[in-house]
Design goal:
444 residues; Rossmann fold; globular; binds NADPH dihydro-nicotinamide-adenine-dinucleotide phosphate
């Protein structure tokens, strides 16, 4: 049995009930096979893969808080500190009822390679809770965040582990978390990113993930002598990543015709009016259904199936495994040419394989959505320097980073004779830097 298969089997046996983690490891190990095969003995002798798939540390804790009715609620809290070979742990916090240790391990594992691809000195981590901020009052969210941070603050720090936002954790939650960290530790330091602009945040951080997806998409199109101008686009989700992907791709001349949330999707043949989506989602915290009530000609459909609308470009920006094999088949049948993942692992392994086999240019999330964490690292830099860069400066740096990620991914795919296979390219390019650091640092 090959070394990569052996390690995969070990992961499945030793991490039962964590299918998303198995899936993420499978994808990476399959891609790395060509690299490992060239030097299997050395990798085996150093147990590189066994160490790579085992988190350095997982912190799991109780989060008690009091709701508006005076009842005590208890949630689970986690931080997975996966790999610090190239820098302090960096990765978001997710607050969603589906959060469990396996989901956070998949996200933390992906984060190692993503962070490496950015070229910045950040290791991989992820955290969160099964707390659901939806429908909670601001006071309840604050109570939860304060309790969560009271425990988490023992394990993080500006040079140790720097969390950020993710699903369910936006500016409001980062504010409450930061306030509590400062209160307990007495330190005004860059321990979290995604902060408000008046207290250490970076311009463009809010937009960074979505903009970054489109910057790399633009590079893919250029590499295929194509342009985004005039293309029809579907963006799934209607949260942070989705909204700013829509903003940038529209600025570059494409037309977004559909978006969704977890209840259903809206189709607007005239092009999505983003100011209305922002008002529904960012201001009123409402449902995407309301778009169809407010815009003439727009149609709302309850449930899944946004991929049945024909498009040239599909940008999944909602959640893991939202696009399966059937969805991939429908996209191909309708002539879709490009898929760039704004979300983490939104496409199943079967869906990804089908898209690639049928000529769709497919950019995986660890490369396509790396603009968010890259800009978080730029926020860390500004905090350390006690400086704030202008929006233009940050945006230009973000653009450069995404162009460089595309080059690294494209180059690695070509070096291993798999041109246009950006999944393999992203995994190999991300791995190369991490593994060099792991080798240099000895058996730790
Ligand atoms: P948000 O919470 O802001 O938005 C998530 C969106 O996805 C919401 O519109 C949500 O709808 C929708 N959604 C969730 N589950 C489903 C589902 N099963 N079907 C359809 N829609 C669904 O999160 P973000 O935009 O921050 O994150 C989205 C993805 O991008 C995640 O995978 C995240 O890990 C990834 N990511 C985020 C980064 C960031 O900077 N924010 C950086 C890199 C990756 P509803 O409101 O109904 O739940």
């Amino acid at each position: 049995m090959s070394y990569t298969d052996e390690v995969y089997e070990r992961v499945v046996a030793q991490n039962p009930g964590e299918p998303e983690f198995h899936q993420a490891v499978r994808e990476v190990l399959d891609s790395l096979k060509v690299v490992i095969d060239r030097n299997e003995e050395e990798y085996r002798s150093l147990s590189i893969l066994e160490r790579l798939v085992e988190p350095e540390r997982i912190i799991s804790f109780r989060v008690p808080w009091v709701d508006d009715n005076g009842n005590i609620q208890v949630n689970k809290g986690y931080r997975v500190q996966f790999n610090s070979a190239i820098g302090p742990y960096k990765g978001g916090l997710r607050f969603h009822p589906t959060v469990n240790q396996g989901i956070l391990k998949f996200l933390g594992f992906e984060q190692i390679f993503k962070n490496s691809l950015t070229g910045l000195p950040i290791g991989g981590g992820k955290g969160g809770s099964n707390f659901d901020p939806k429908g909670k009052s601001d006071r309840e969210v604050m109570a939860f965040c304060q309790s969560f941070m009271t425990e988490l603050c023992k394990y993080i720090g500006a040079d140790q582990d720097v969390p950020a936002g993710d699903i369910g954790v936006g500016g409001r939650e980062i504010g409450f978390l930061y306030g509590q960290y400062k209160r307990i530790k007495g330190l005004y330091e860059g321990v979290l990113t995604g902060k408000g602009l008046t207290w250490g945040g970076s311009l463009i951080r809010t937009q960074a993930t979505g903009y970054g997806v489109v910057y790399i998409l633009d590079e893919i199109a250029k590499a295929h002598n194509d342009t985004l101008e005039g293309k029809t686009v579907i963006v799934t989700g209607s949260g942070n990543v989705a909204i700013y992907a829509v903003e940038k791709v529209t600025q570059l001349g494409a037309k977004v015709v559909a978006m969704c949330d977890s209840n259903g999707y809206v189709y607007d043949p005239d092009g999505i009016k983003l100011d209305i989506v922002k008002d529904i989602k960012e201001v009123k915290r409402g449902r995407i259904k309301e778009y169809a009530d407010r815009v003439e000609g727009a149609v709302y459909t309850e449930g899944k199936g946004i991929w049945t609308i024909p498009c040239d470009i599909y940008l999944p920006c909602a959640t893991q495994n939202e696009l399966d094999l059937d969805g991939a088949k429908t996209l191909v049948a309708n002539g879709c040419k490009y898929v760039a993942e704004g979300a983490n692992m939104p496409t199943t392994l079967e869906g990804t394989a089908y898209l690639q086999e049928n000529g769709v240019c497919f950019m995986p999330g660890k490369a396509a959505n790396a603009g968010g964490v890259a800009t978080s690292a730029l926020e860390m830099t500004q905090n350390s320097m006690r400086l704030s860069w202008s929006a233009e400066e940050v945006d230009a740096k973000l653009h450069d980073i995404m162009v460089n990620i595309f080059k690294k991914v494209d180059d690695a795919a070509k070096r291993y004779d798999m041109p246009d296979n950006y999944v393999v390219g992203a995994n190999i390019a991300g791995f190369e830097k991490v593994v060099e650091a792991m080798k240099a640092q000895g058996i730790v």
